[in-house]
Each structure stands twice: as structure tokens, then as C-alpha cells.
Amino acid sequence: MILFYFCAMTVTDLKTTLESGVKDALMALYGPDAAALPVSLQTTRKEFAGNYTVVTFPYTRVAKQKPDEIAEKLGAYLKENLELVSDYNVIKGFCNLSVADSFWQEFLLSIYENTDYGRQPDNGEKVMVEYSSPNTNKPLHLGHIRNNLLGYATARILDAAGYEVYKVQVINDRGIAICKSMLAWKKFGEGATPASTGTKPDHFVGKYYVLFEQKFKAEYLDWQSSSVGEAVYAEKAKEGQSPEAFFKAYKNTYFNEYSQLGQEAKQMLQNWEAGDEATVELWKTMNGWVYAGFGETYDRLGVDFDKLYYESNTYLLGKDIIEKGMASGTFFTKEDGSTWVDLTDAKLDEKAVLRSDGTSLYITQDLGTAQLRYQDFGVNKMVYVVADEQNYHFQVLFEILKRLGEPYAEGLHHLNYGMVDLPTGRMKSREGTVVDADDLMDEVIGEARAASADRETTSDLSAEEKERIIDQIGLAALKFFILKVNPKKRMVFDPKESVDMQGQTGPYVQNAYVRTQAVARKAGERDLSLASQHTSLESGEVDLINQLYTFPSIIEEAAENYDPSVVATYCYELAKAFHKFWHDYSILSAESEATISFRLALCKAVGNVLRTGMNLIGIDMPDRM
RNA sequence: GGUCCAGUAGCUCAGGGGAUAGAGCAUCUGCCUUCUAAGCAGACGGUCCUAGGUUCGAUUCCUAGCUGGAUCACCA
Fold it and tell me: pLDDT tens digits for A320-355?
């Protein structure tokens, strides 16, 4: 009987069972009209006894009774008729239900040894997650870190939710930006290399990008005070526009029409596109440096990819898809020969997809790349992790693919995340406020090292082991700080707060896990079968088990919404409950062998879930700290 | 100007048609001879941007406004 009860309950969702119980109760007490109303079942607030709460206000009209009376009758009925409900109490029309200890107990015993608890079985669907996708002209910065962490965590969460996941990025390795770095190195580099200067190679290339901008700026300033510059200002400036304002706005035009450096950079791009050997060679060398540097950063950050797409291979793609769309009438040609799509009926305006000279645009390339990836992987879902400044672009892209009837069109999703601001405002490369990814990791790991310095808990470990733990702690602080925020929201990154290790932080969660491991170490090999004799649970135990119970639904929710912050918040709350449990109850010196066994099983389960959960958001868990 | 997103404690953020709106940081106060104090407990702190509307009930949903941001290239 007990066994049957336990099996039946673990396969059914607790909440669903309670809801249908409430429906039955309403039917029995007040008839079909009451039973037809929706059941509002919420988790009971901490300050009241019970686990789930039924709100009775909606039934007053049909039942013709006061909320308190309804709640009382409902509670009594459920306690009497539903084995799952062991008790109830009524407060101001809210009926708080307590779930039977036997349910919690048997649930715990069914999962505590399962290190994969929470993971869903394969659902047979394939999904691709694109993230990072940097330009190769400068190193990664804080914005990329948010992108990378979100992309990687989302991929892991989708994997745990049952998908077959492919992680990819498109490396923007061509175009005018990298030509600027190349040109500056060629003109001013005097043959220096990352090795000869002892510089991390992506930073080395970035230095020349900055150098180009400096030289260009100097050239522009000279020109502004030249006779040509003054004439242009006199002719083109708007009424009352200051020279500063005018020349700021005129910068792009100057680059394209007057600048010597601009001319040379553009020439370099043309040479590259024509396949000029020396240019391609230089391009390969400098990009090679950048990849080596990026690789280091990715490794350290703990992210990886299944396949890399290079823009240099894909930038001409998409023309065949345009032809197909021409045939089906999705696109049309304007008098000047340019090709367009009219999306005004989707509230999206007209959009060019080919220039009048027939060359591709950004959107053309993305159309082609989507198709290529479908051919490569046969995925029916694609997630693009790209900042929300490109919302419009993706709306247009997805709408076009939909109209073209692409088989994966319904599965496209733009995981748009908000920009990362500093306490002083937006990051600006011109003002040198861009936070470099490598520096940031150095800093946060340095803080972890300082905080670990005189801890006795790890004093017997080797230097290498200590370093590994310090890395894990520092990165946990950084990653958790970023991932706990809902991706959609713009966030403020305060470097001071990001290295905090107390409170709502990664190390706080790690510490809860470390405690579960510490007690397990101390307990040694032990037969926990007596745990089943611990039948009367403490509230602290029920709280924890109840939270463990919701873990699978957390994974589902995070996957459905592409939102790792759900998992981060869950891990924090579980850790918090465990820290309190740790403080309130003793484990190894509990009153009976049954209780000791039960609490050890509980620790094991909490440890498993904390590890699984944190791993889902890309955070490693040390056994000691 | 059009479109989209956001506005919750001094700061960073959760939450969400339901009970007295929650955490962390910061400030102040207790708790380590007992499983790791990177911990626990307490105090302080609110016009949930404003005004209407729907509802038994709105901080949550709707409308309008205010504020901040993004975007509206034959750029990427």
C-alpha cells in the first residue's frame, strides 16, 4: 500500500493532484458550478503553516458562504478524503494545506542517489544556440561576457530539458574593422608580434585597432582646420551648428570621401575581397593571433562551441535564397536594380536585401547562414543570443524566413538581452571605460585569492588544488552576478559588487554545497537505509524537500523562457534554505540513527541539485573552499 | 515623430490578480570549545513612476501620460 502510494505520487505532479482534489471537493460541497471555476493554488507564505494554499474568494458567489467558511469546509474535506493532505489551517479566507510527511519522505528517498535528478529525457528535438560572435579586431569585453554566459547557460539548460543542442558562433572576421587593425600594424607595427612584445595576441591586435583610430582622429583634426575642411563646414553645416557638432556628425563621410587612412583601409578591404595574396596572408596572420587570444579567454570562462562559422566564408551567402523568394513573389526589384521585401503589413517597413549592384547586405548573409545551418544540423529551433539593440533586425530576418516558408522558421528565437552598464553609465570605448574580459576575470579571481588567503579549511591542500578552487570561486562570483539578472533587463555592473562573496552570490551557493560535501566526508561510507524510519519530519526538512521537488519544473521554465536567471535564483534559494537548515539542526549528532541517515540523504540530494543547477549555468562547484 | 523595452527600499535585483510586497548590499545589534562563520538571527529602510479603467480584490491586467533606453541605412 505504502509502495503503491509512493509510486503513484511521484509520477503525478503534486500540484495537479491537489488541484484535482480541490475540484472534487468543490463538486462535493458546492456542486458543478463551483467545480467549474478555476482553482487558485499557490505556495504557502513562509509565515504560515502548510505547503500549498487555496484561495477561496472566487467561490463566495456560487457557494453563498464567506471565504472563511468555504476554506474551513474545503480543508476538512481534503484532509478527510485526500491521503496527500495531512492537515490544514484557515486564515482570512486562505486555506493552507499541509502535505503528508510520508509523501516528502518517500520522494526524498527516491531521488537522493540520482545525480541526474531534474534532467528531462530526450525529446527528440534539435536546437542550435548561437552566441558570442565577436569581431576579430579587438579583445572580448564585459558585453561579450554577458553574451557568452547567457548563451552557454541556455545551451546547457536546453540540453537538460531534453534537447539535442549545438553551440555555434559566427566569427566576424572580415570587413573594414579588421582592415583598420591590419593597416595600422602594417604602417606602424615595425614587424612586432605578440611573442616579440609579450602581449596576449588578441590584445596585441586590438592595440593596432586603437592606434588606427588615434591616427585617423589626428588626421581628421588636421583636415578640419585645413582650407578644404573649413570650406566643407561653411558649405554643409546647418544654421547655427557648431564646428564640433558638425564634424562629429560628418566623421563617416570624411572617412569615406576625404581620409587618406580611410582610403587605404578601404583599398585593403578591396584587395582582400579580390584575393590579393599579401593582404590575405596578413589577414590570416592577424586573425590567427586573435583566435589564439579568444581561445584562452573562452577556456578560462569555461565556454565552448561545437562549430564555428566564419563570416569570410558566409558573407556571400543568401543570393540563392533571394532568387527563390523572387520567384515566389516575396521580393521585388526597384528601378535602380536593388531588391526589397515589403513587410509593412507586418508593421515592419520595407527592407533592402540586395544592393543595386547586386551585392549582399548583412541581412542577406543572415538569411543564407540560417539555411546553411539547417543543412548542417537539421535543427528545428535556432536561438540567437544577441543584444537587444538588434531586435528590429531579427524581427525582419525571422519574418522573411517565415514568408519564404523555411521549415525551421517557426523555431527561430532571438534571445535578446539588455546592455551592461557601469555605475558611471554606458561603456564607451572612446572614453576608455570598456571593461576588458581578461582583466575582469583576473580581478575577480584575485579577490577570491585574497579572501581565501588565511582560511584553514583548505590549508592542507596543494598549491595547485588551492589555485583551482580559487578560480572556481572567483568565476562563480562573476558568473552568478551576471546570470542572476533576467536577461531581458539592462543591468548595472558594479565591479565592487561583482567580487562580493557574501550574500546573494555564487560563492554563497558554493559554500552550501561545500557543507553538504563536508558532512558526507565526515560521515564516510554509511548505510542510509534506516532513513525510511524517520517518518515525522521537521519543518526545515520539509522546506528543503519541497524545494528539491520543484527542481524539474525550474529547468522546464528556464528552458521555455530561455532564462538562466530562473536557475540562478532557484540555486540561491535552495542554498539559503540549506544554510538555515545547517544552522538549525545537527546532522551527524541527530537524536537517532534513522534521523542521521535521513539528514545525510537530504544533504546528498541538496548537494546533487545544487551541483546540477549551478553546472547548468556554467558554474563549477568545489568540494572544499 | 513611429515601433519596442524598462521604471519595486539609499544601491543591485526578485516577485506577481489575493494575506502585512521580498532578497542581497550598505548602516546598526546579537551568535563560533559541537558537521566549513564565504554562515545564522534581529533592527532600520517602500507613493511598487503618475492618473484613470476592469475586478470581490490591481504593485501585477488594460488605456493614457511622465521618465530612461534601444531602434527606425543599398552599415554590420
Answer: 899 989 998 999 999 999 999 999 888 888 999 999
Residue A588 approaches strand B within 7 Å at CB: yes
**How many angstroms separate the CA atoms of A179 and A208, rounded?**
10
Q: What is the 3-state secondary structure (H, E, C) of A490-513?
A: CEECCHHHHCCCCCCCHHHHHHHH
Distance between first and last Cα of chain A: 45
A114 Rama sector, left if φ>0, alpha if ψ -120 to 50, beta otherwise = beta
Integer Cα distance of A604 and A112 in angstroms: 6
Each residue of A79-102: pLDDT tens digit? Answer: 999 999 999 999 988 999 999 999
C-alpha distances in Å from residue A452, one per residue of A306, A461, A549: 35, 12, 34
Question: According to the model, what pLDDT value does residue A7 have?
Answer: 40
CA distance A562 to A567: 11
Taking the C-alpha atoms of residue A381 and residue A567, their distance in angstroms, rounded to an integer, is 22
Q: How far is CA A513 from the centre of its chain?
A: 22
Grid coordinates representing A276? Answer: 590579393
- Strand B nucleotides with an atom less than 7 Å from a protein beta carbon: 3-6, 11-15, 17-20, 22-26, 34-41, 56-57, 69-76
The hierarchical CATH code for the domain A2-99 is: 3.30.1360.70
Residue type, A146: R
Which is nearest to A136 in space by CA: A295, A268, A274?
A295
Distance separating alpha carbons of residues A198 and A363, to the nearest angstrom? 39
Q: How far is CA A606 from CA A52, A240, A252, A460, A573, in A?
A: 21, 68, 57, 26, 12
Would you tell me how many other CB atoms lie within 10 Å of the CB of residue A79?
16
Cα A479 from Cα A485, distance rounded (Å): 11
- Residue A580 (CA) to nucleotide B41 (C1'), in angstroms, measures 10
Residue A12's pLDDT band, with cuts at 50, 70 and 90, is: low
Tell me: pLDDT of A5 over 80.
no
For residue range A249-269, list pLDDT tens digits in order. 888 889 988 999 999 999 999
Average per-residue pLDDT for chain A: 93
A179 strand B contact, CB < 7 Å = no
- Give the residue ranges of DSSP H helices in A161-276: 176-188, 194-197, 201-224, 227-236, 243-249, 251-257, 260-273
**Short-list A470, A422, A423, CA closest to A447:** A470
User: Is the C-beta atom of A573 closer than 7 angstroms to strand B?
Assistant: no
CB A111 within 8 A of CB A605: yes
Fold of the CATH domain A437-616: Isoleucyl-tRNA Synthetase; Domain 1 (1.10.730)
Q: Is the CB of A94 under 7 A from strand B?
A: yes
Contact (Cβ atoms closer than 8 angstroms) between residue A238 and residue A224: no
A2-99 matches A437-616 in fold: no
Query: So where are chain A's domains?
Result: 2-99, 175-287, 437-616
Q: What is the DSSP string of A327-384?
A: HTTSEEE-TTS-EEEE-GGGT--EEEEE-TTS-B-HHHHHHHHHHHHHHHH--SEEEE
Q: Of the candidates A64, A51, A128, which has an alpha carbon nearest to the alpha carbon of residue A94? A: A51
Residues 316-355 of A with CB under 7 A from strand B: 334, 336, 338, 347, 349, 352, 355
C-alpha to C-alpha distance for A261 and A268, rounded to whole angstroms: 10
Cα Rg, chain A, nearest whole Å: 30
